[in-house]
Amino acid sequence: MTPNEASTNRERVVTMASGGVMLAVLIALLLGDIGMFAYAIAAGKDNVPLILPLLLSLLLLPTTIILMTGLFTLQPNEARVLVLFGAYKGTVRTAGFHWGNPFYSNGPQSAGVGAGKGLAKTDSTGPRAPRNKISLRARTYNSPALKVNDKRGNPIEIAAVVVWRVQDTAQARFDVDNFETYIQTQSESALRHLASLYAYDDGEENESTLRSNVDEVSRALRTELLERLAKAGVTVDEARLTHLAYAPEIAQAMLRRQQAEAVIAARQKIVHGAVSMVEMALRDLAEKHVVQLDDERKAAMVSNLMVVLCGESEVHPVINAGTLYS
């Protein structure tokens, strides 16, 4: 390991003594201490208590009180990191009532309820949470709308929601300064990088875009986040885009382009349908021998039908009393 390379911690799951059993033992010690103190007073002579029982009872009382501080509880999907005089001793993951060394230290606040953008505003010097506990529940981070450039250089606004949870408590506690702030920073960085790899829309043939390939983009975002957050002992259950739009300065121009593309696509479909209907009409007239048309009359009929079928306004028929040749 090089001097500038930080060591990677790994979680060690340990089992603590039952809190119920230890509570009964400590209560018995406390009652025994009170009884010894009373005995030392009562058994003394000439108002002088027995020295040895009195000293033992005075020493046992603070010891019992200190041992009682080792009692703690864990809720489901909650863990406690055990640190004894700066050394990592393991992690307790079992929910219930436990007892451990009363000198296991507390740590900086970590698993607060999300606020604002989805994460607690804490740092390594903030309030201290009791018992060095870390929540293992799934939590979400809603990123703000970020203004970035897509693959083609168009300014866009993009945001995502990340569902994450702590997988390795030792890495989350010791390998990064504050894993919640780390998640926020890395999520926004990954989102910016992802946006630069895809075009917003109107990509080349078989090209994935942010707008058309949402599932593929979401998988790519989750893969990148898993790689970035692995150092903090955090896993990502899901990552999806929640907001995608052009930046305001080009939104109107892009809207006009999209409207023009929609009009062209609609016209193409109308023309294709009109040609099919004209072809069907000419074929049925010929097969049923309704009328015999030469090329000039067919051309006139095709022209009239195309005007009727492709025109946007209502058509008013004109009766021709003559012929095409007069």
Walk me through the topology.
Layout: E1 17-18, H1 19-42, H2 51-68, E2 71-74, E3 78-84, E4 87-92, E5 96-99, E6 107-108, E7 128-129, E8 133-135, E9 139-142, E10 146-149, E11 155-166, H3 169-174, H4 179-195, H5 214-229, E12 234-246, H6 248-287, H7 295-310
Antiparallel strand pairs: 1-5, 2-5, 3-4, 3-8, 6-7, 9-11, 10-11, 11-12
Helix pairs in contact: 1-2, 4-5, 6-7
Overall number of structural domains: 3
Q: Helical region count?
A: 7
The helix content is: 40-55%
Structural class: alpha+beta
In percent terms, what proportion of residues is strand? Answer: 15-25%
Main sheet specs: 4 strands, antiparallel
The CATH class of the largest domain turns out to be Alpha Beta
The H-level CATH homologous superfamily of the largest domain, spelled out, is: Band 7 domain
What is the overall shape? Answer: rod-shaped
User: How many strand segments?
Assistant: 12
Q: Low-confidence parts, pLDDT < 50 over ≥5 residues?
A: 109-128
Core attributes:
326 residues; alpha+beta; Tetrahydropterin Synthase, Chain A; 3 domains; four-stranded antiparallel β-sheet; three-stranded antiparallel β-sheet; rod-shaped
